[in-house]
Structures are given as structure tokens and as C-alpha cells.
Amino acid sequence: MHSLYNDILIQELKKYRDKKILVAFSGGKDSLMLLDFINKQKESLNIYAGACHINHGLRHTAKRDEDFCRLYCIKNNIDFYTYNISEELKKDNSGGIEASARKYRYKFLLHTVKENNYDFLFTGHTYSDDIESFFVDLYTGASLFTLGGIMYENDKIIRPMLNITTEMVNEYIIKNNLEPVFDETKKWLDIYFSGKDPKFTPPLKMETTSFRKTVWEILLTIPYGRTITYGAIAERIAGQKGVGRMSAQAVGGAVGHNAISLIIPCHRVVGTNGSLTGYAGGMEKKVKLLALEKTDMTGLFVPKKGMV
Description:
This protein is of the alpha/beta class. 46% of the residues lie in helices and 10% in strands. Helix 9 packs across helix 11. The chain is elongated and about 70 Å long.
């Protein structure tokens, strides 16, 4: 049976006939569909396709994901490039891990385009991502591009799947017997921004000091829609270590260095007096995230000056 996605993508790809395309390849469903479709149409459209995978090194599945992408490309005779940006993220995550990951991801993708004489970079953002980017920006200020959704073309960056739905992607994956890397992080974000408790934690790779890791692990135990104070976390750590007391300020410092915000929910930590303090993303975003979770805000307030 003929599928609508075929017409949509063929019309998009015709614009790039005789061009050399680099596909940003995570191994997830969207980028797998895009790369596979282009590769199957390369002769009829005279399009040359390569693939580039960016290994963020943030999850214990990072090496598996990279190996999956490499093997797929070897099997399908596609030029494959990869970069590990974990060191860059360790040195520079002052703006938040999500923003830093985007910055270095696109830096190396566009570097690959330039160094290997590709004409364009294709990414697998779909219609669902375009909608999600609006809400991510609304709640966190951390969307991929702008409040108005994902832009179609940005210099050499092309997003040919913005009219492709999740249902179309799933149909293509099944029909072509493809087995994408299961992106648990994307699933978590999809559920979270729909206003529901994901009820699971995607694989995380917490490379930090022993103390910060202890604090972050406690953050992961805070229930969805609930809050905890810095002081309560300090008391819990003191109990674990068998010491008389632990500094709430030290806990605040560890919370502030959380490299995987949102999934490790530092926005659920508040001051002992109910002050919504200590969120690197800003008070407005912290309030919006708590509201999204339908947190009881009784007794909580935005301080004039941040303090634990």
C-alpha cells in the first residue's frame, strides 16, 4: 500500500537532487528513517548520503548507540563519521547540559559538513518535535531553536521531515524491518511535557564528585509533583554518613552543579522557609515546571534574593 510519507519525502528530497547530504544520525527512529529513506532513493535522485553520530557520553548506552550507527552504515555502504563530545561537556556546561550539548553537537556536525565537502546537514526533526519544541521553550526556555517551533532551514541545516508524523515514522520502521536504538530519554521527555509522571528514569551517566553524585541520587528519589528542602537532603546525607550534621549550603552547591537538569529534578528542591531558590534556569522556569507537575504551591514563594 502506498504511504503518504513517501510522497512527502520524495518531494522534499527532489529539492536536493545531485547534492551531497550529511545526515545527523542518533540511531533513534526519526534519524534512522531519514537515513534509510535517502539511501534507498540515492540512485533515482542522484543524492549522495553520509552519516554523522555525536556521542555525548552522558549515558551508559552511549557506546552501544554509536556502535549501532556504525554497524548500520557499514552494512549499507554509507560513509560514517563520529565525534565524542563528553570532554567538551565536562569543561563547558555553565549554561546547562542541554544547551552545551546542542552547541557542541552542531559545532561538530557542521565541521564534518565543511571538512568533507557536504552541501547540507539533514536532521530528523519531525512534526511532533516541532510541536514539542514550542512547549519545551514555554516551560524551560531550552527549545532547539525558537519559541515559534523548529525553523525549516538554517543556513546549511535542513529538516526535511517536519511534515512527517510519529505515526508515519513508526509505519516506515515496521514496514522496512528496521530496529532503531530505543531512545528512553526522548520517551521520558515526551511523557513529561505531556503533563504526566514518566514513572521511570532513563539511563544516566553521572560523572562528578562523590558528594555531588550522592546529592543527585537523592534528587532522583523526589516524587513527581513533590518538593524537598536543602536542609532535608543535608539531614539524609548526614544520616547516611553517620555524622552529626551536613551543610545545607554544600547541598545547594551540589544541586547547582547538576549537569542533567530536569531529569535529575533540581527544580523540586526549595528553601526551608518555602523559598523557590537555587535554580540555575531561573525562578520563572522553576515555577512553570512545578506547575506542570501540579505541585501544591502552598507556602512556596519567589524570593527577592536567592539563598538556601
